[in-house]
Design brief:
Structural class: alpha/beta
Strand content: 15-25%
Low-confidence stretches: 256-263, 267-280, 332-338
Distance between the termini: 19 Å
Strand order of the largest sheet: 1-9-3-4-5-6-7
Largest sheet: 7 strands, mixed
Oligomer: single chain
Number of domains: 1
Length: 338
Amino acid sequence: MLSSFAIDKLLKYFDAIDRHVTRYMTYPRPRDEEGMTAMLVDLLDEDVQLREGIGYSIQNLRDDLASVSDPTSVAFNLETHAYRKDFENRVSQADLGLIVRYENHYEPELSGQRSWLLQAKRIYETRYDPSRRYEPRATFNAFDANQDARIRELIRFVDDDFFRYLLYCPRPEELDHRTRSELSYFRSKALGSEIFDYATGLQIRDDVLNGSPTLAAGIFIADVEGCPKTLGGVHEGLLTTATPLSWFIVQHVPGAEPHLRRSSFDGRGPRHGFDLRSESDDLVSRIVRGDEKVIGIISETLSGRRWDGRLLPAATLTVTISAGEPADRDRPRWDRID
């Protein structure tokens, strides 16, 4: 589990990356999804952070955690995938595999990981008013019914709710006053019934009281079900249908209780009748990391049933958040108090 201090600094770090990536949304020629995803991945490299002058770097994060002897550390690993030639037409450079891994060296039973396929979408300008490039009614690229059907078939087949949309939006602070005010209203409405308890709840409260620096984000993660269609919808669904990337990562670090995955949302149960488990990785992480054996079986089984499409990520990002060092496993365990 993470301390309140670590949560605050991790949010600040990932939000700094969010801020740097989404500034391109307000450039005269905004980058497309592929360019935004490439920048997101690049900015997790420490050398790139130094060259780009990111506001709060990984070194800043390490220094702050060390200053209070917080045992939390963060590491990143990027895998690029070389698929078989017959898979090449199913690879998307705009999409990303994400694995959030938590390693607790004090209480190993709290360790775990979650994996997702992220499909990128960016918001498009409205241009109804020259002074307002992005209004709350600004929409994402056109909804593809066939693609949605493929996604749902894949989720149902794997029997795991592991697919998310990676939404690129301009940050409210970069928009005109009227739009900022409307988006602020939507966020306030979304959080109006929240009970701000426990570490993350208190952090949400602090963020709101400080002007929502991390909640008023630009990069959001959204479920397939209820994915917002507009910029206003993103902020109206804050922390329910759309969660800032920084908060999404922090919220999926296991706490005192195991974090259970949801099964497929249509309730019809799993579709695979084969055992693809391994000792080190679950099925989803093997899909997300481009395991050819798994992808080959799924592709062959689903061929002719909506599987033809660009659903494979060109790269997978693993975020590893650790408590303590590996050597801590060998130290005497403290007694639990019932």
